[in-house]
Amino acid sequence: MIKNFLLVGLGGALGSMLRYAIYLSVTVKNFPLGTFAVNIAGSFIIGIVLALSIKDESFLNNWKVFLATGICGGFTTFSSFSAENLTLLQNGKFGIALLYITLSIVLGIAAAWLGVKLITPTP
Question: Does residue 32 sit in helix, strand or coil?
């Protein structure tokens, strides 16, 4: 149990640092592109991790905890997504907020699906 907490903590720290680096390097004036990009990438990565854990029973639970819960949990961020949308709405940018919300949900699910399909393709 302690080992899993340490794996989640280490993965979460790495994911958070990577998210912050992307946030600093990706800027667009009216659209929160950094958070959007990490959420879509994180959805894709978690799809791959989940598919690996389903496809290969030897895929260790330690890796699943480290990658999915730790790295993806620290890398993606619903709280920033919520705060950025609230700011957009408060500033009267309803169209941009709607676009951000819609694209994040639709592309996030599509990215997770793509991650699963890359690992478990259908014949």
Answer: coil
Structure tokens at 58: 């030897």
Type of residue numbered 26: V
Report d(CA 53, CA 84) in Å as an integer.
33
Picking from 64, 51, 53, 69, the residue whose alpha carbon sits closest to that of residue 113 is 51
What the block records as the tokens of 78 is: 């619903």
Q: Where are the alpha helices (DSSP H) in the chain?
A: 2-25, 33-55, 61-64, 73-75, 78-90, 94-119
Q: How many residues does the chain have?
A: 123
For the chain (123 residues), the mean pLDDT of every run of 10, in chain order, is 93 95 86 89 88 77 87 86 90 96 96 92 72
- Alpha-carbon distance of 96 to 33, in angstroms, equals 12
